[in-house]
From TrEMBL:
The active site is at residues 157, 184, 254, 257, 280, 289. This is Tyrosine recombinase XerC. It comes from Corynebacterium guangdongense. Residues 114-302 form the Tyr recombinase domain. Site-specific tyrosine recombinase, which acts by catalyzing the cutting and rejoining of the recombining DNA molecules. The XerC-XerD complex is essential to convert dimers of the bacterial chromosome into monomers to permit their segregation at cell division. It also contributes to the segregational stability of plasmids. PROSITE patterns: CB (PS51900), TYR_RECOMBINASE (PS51898). It is found in: Cytoplasm. InterPro entries: CB, DNA_brk_join_enz, Integrase-like_cat_sf, Integrase_catalytic, Integrase_recombinase_N, Integrase_SAM-like_N, Tyrosine_recombinase_XerC/XerD, Tyrosine_recombinase_XerCD. Its main location: cytoplasm. Belongs to the 'phage' integrase family. XerC subfamily. The lineage of its organism: Bacteria, Bacillati, Actinomycetota, Actinomycetes, Mycobacteriales. Residues 2-93 form the Core-binding (CB) domain. It comes from the Bacteria.
Length: 308
């Protein structure tokens, strides 16, 4: 067992005696070490050998989010706090107290990253409903509706959808509600698919894809010449739907992915679940959506609280 506080004291003494750090720098290190030790205690981690990279990622997320008794930290401050936590783990590994430095691959939160553009739920519905689906709908309309429903219904990257084959969605038409996506680096993940997206895909397979297919491509989404729908064509279809819906925001496939994540968090999903659904390798990538949600809550509070 490696007691976090004992190792921390040994490390701080090492920094003071062996490294000769200034009193001011040591004070800053001690503050961040105490913050980390308090978080470990709250998480029930009394043995440093039980700490995983996932724990450290959660620590960063909690620093950025804040709590009732601990204010949220800016990305730069959370990054510095992570550097100190990583320093403790690195020291423990160098001293032979820890066998693996689990902190080595944990990245600090990005600084200065702009918040992603999102659509409200009403705007998403407005966007999708702008594409005809009735008897007057063309095969292109039906395909574009399926594209929009899948983008928002699964949070997929546009490249993940344009890479789907017909066989990949065969189960949806038979009542399955799970889709397997291949993301960055070939990593696969499963995502649930809602009724409206399944209905749109089934409609496309029956009414539209046969009009495009010429037997040369097994891709799910086809262009009018029977080839695989390109990312550029998908972007154009989304922009056309936004213009038709009267949405003045810049709308792209990633806008729907951002909206998907934000609406899940606003609906009560936890950040770890959203991380898995988006296919992020690190939860620190997903945490930007918690900032969007926090801004939304702050706006509501300003409007509703009598002393805001």
């Amino acid at each position: 067992m490696v007691d976090p506080r004992e190792l921390a004291e040994t490390w701080l003494n090492h920094l003071a005696v062996e490294r000769g750090l200034s009193a001011n720098t040591l004070s800053n290190y001690r503050r961040d070490v105490e913050r980390y030790l308090a978080w470990l205690a709250d998480a029930g981690l009394a043995d440093l050998t039980d700490v995983t990279a996932g724990h450290l990622e959660s620590y960063v997320v909690d620093l950025r989010r804040g709590s009732a008794d601990r204010p949220a930290l800016a990305a730069s401050s959370a990054g510095r706090a992570l550097v100190v936590a990583r320093g403790l783990h690195k020291f423990g590994t160098a001293e032979g107290e820890l066998t693996v430095d689990v902190s080595a691959d944990v990245s600090p939160p990005a600084t200065g990253t702009p918040l992603p553009d999102t659509l409200s739920v009403a705007e998403v519905e407005q966007l999708i409903d702008a594409v005809p689906t009735g008897e007057s709908a063309t095969p292109v309309d039906i395909r574009d509706r399926a594209l929009l429903e899948l983008l928002y219904g699964t949070g997929a990257r546009v490249s993940e959808l344009t890479g789907l084959l017909v066989d990949d969605v065969a189960g949806l038409a038979e009542g399955d509600t799970i889709l397997t996506l291949s993301g960055k680096g070939g990593r696969q993940r499963i995502v649930p698919v809602g009724r409206q997206a399944i209905r749109a895909v089934t409609d496309y397979l029956v009414r539209a894809r046969p009009a495009f297919a010429n037997g040369r491509s097994h891709s799910l989404l086809l262009n009018t010449r029977g080839g695989s729908l390109s990312r550029q064509s998908a972007w154009a279809a989304i922009r056309a739907a936004a213009e038709r819906a009267g949405i003045t925001k810049e709308v792209s496939p990633h806008t729907l992915r951002h909206s998907y994540a934000t609406h899940l968090l606003e609906g009560g999903a936890d950040v770890r679940t959203v991380q898995e659904l988006l296919g992020h390798s690190s939860v620190t990538t997903t945490q930007i959506y918690t900032h969007v949600t926090a801004d939304n809550l702050r706006d509501i509070w300003r409007e509703a609280h009598p002393r805001a």
